[in-house]
Amino acid sequence: MTGVLCMAYGAPADTAGIEPYFTHIRGGRPPSPQALAGLVERYRAIGGSPLDRITRTQARALGQRLGMAALVGMKHSTPMIEEAAGQASAAGITNLVGLPLAPHFAQMSLGGYESRLRAAWPGNLIMVRGFYNHPAFIAAVRGLLRESLAEFSADRIFFTAHSLPRRILDEGDPYVDQLLESCRLVTAGQTLPAWEFAFQSASTTGEPWLGPDLLEAISDSGSRRPLICPIGFVADHLEILFDIDIEARQFARERGLDLRRTRSFNDHPDFVEALAQVVIGAIESTSS
What is the pLDDT of residue 6? Predict the structure, then answer.
């Protein structure tokens, strides 16, 4: 029997879960009181993360579309990837499609999902290593842009994704190239405002992270009506609801700018269909 394991980064279930969640992200090293207080404040500002609920909704819709079991496993919160692999085995699944819910591959992100799943899964594994250039994903992003531009006369589009440490470039990681290729595919043949790419949500770790930063890019561009399209994210969570909807919008208001963003995919039917096409293609490629 074939099933799908939808994998996401994870999020704390409540305020009490923020410290263990943050500690898990840091590889077991507890955060400083100051860093923990900052993260607690951000989660409180958005009323808690909806990521777990959204991921389960995405998996349920995908399973219904495919007619197969679709489970959920998280990288840093329950149910963990390892726990979900055990659930899949107990359910009688022998062929498992590992589907990280992120379009672009980086070894330190999607690579981490894959290594943990391979260590936990005893059966046949079909691993999806991103879907940044899949036609159905590109079409779905175009749909979000059309929807926003029909309501908002943006003068510039900023595609964004989560920043990562700059050292990944020296390691030959494909992350940046895949992000730029997604943007080129989305904008090709379209009549759109000028666009550029920027990174968001960099962490303070003492090492350089990928740039340009979104807020710096907006400021340097001279845009008065920026539209943010977070192409590297597929669901509402902290990086969307706080970093864009609160932090970036406050930045814009202070400068007299009218900033908007495309809505997140969440369980949008076009995105669910894109995931289905990705899974079907992965299964067919292993059986041909």
Answer: 98
DSSP-assigned letter for residue 248:
I
What pLDDT score does 288 carry? 59
Helix 269-287 to helix 51-66 angle, to the nearest 10 degrees? Answer: 60
226 closest CA partner among 214, 234, 241, 238: 214
Question: Do 102 and 137 touch, CB atoms closer than 8 A?
Answer: no
**Cα distances (Å, whole numbers) of residue 231 to 10, 17, 125, 163:** 19, 28, 27, 12
* Angle of the 33-45 helix axis to the 18-25 helix axis, nearest 10: 120
Which of 41, 74, 66, 35 has the alpha carbon at shortest distance from 204?
35
pLDDT beneath 70: ranges in the chain: 288
Amino acid at 246: I
Residues 6+ apart with CB under 8 A from 64: none
Question: Given this model, what pLDDT does residue 205 score?
Answer: 82
* Closest-CA residue to 139 (of 261, 236, 268): 268
* CB neighbour list of residue 189: distance below 8 Å, 6 or more residues apart: none
Q: Is the peptide bond before 165 cis (omega within 30 degrees of 0)?
A: no
Provide the b/e sequence for 159-188 (b: ≥16 CB within 10 Å): bbbbbbbeebeeeebbbbebbeebbebbbe
Alpha carbon distance, N-terminus to C-terminus of the chain: 18
Look at residue 287 in the predicted model and tell me its pLDDT.
Answer: 73
Q: Count the Cβ atoms, other than its own, within 10 Å of residue 263.
A: 13
Please give the pLDDT value at position 145.
98
Q: Full-prediction pTM beyond 0.90? A: yes
- Alpha helices for the chain (secondary structure H): 18-25, 33-45, 51-66, 81-90, 110-120, 135-149, 167-170, 175-187, 214-221, 238-241, 249-254, 269-287
pLDDT number for residue 286: 84
Q: Are 38 and 203 in contact, with CB atoms under 8 Å apart? A: no
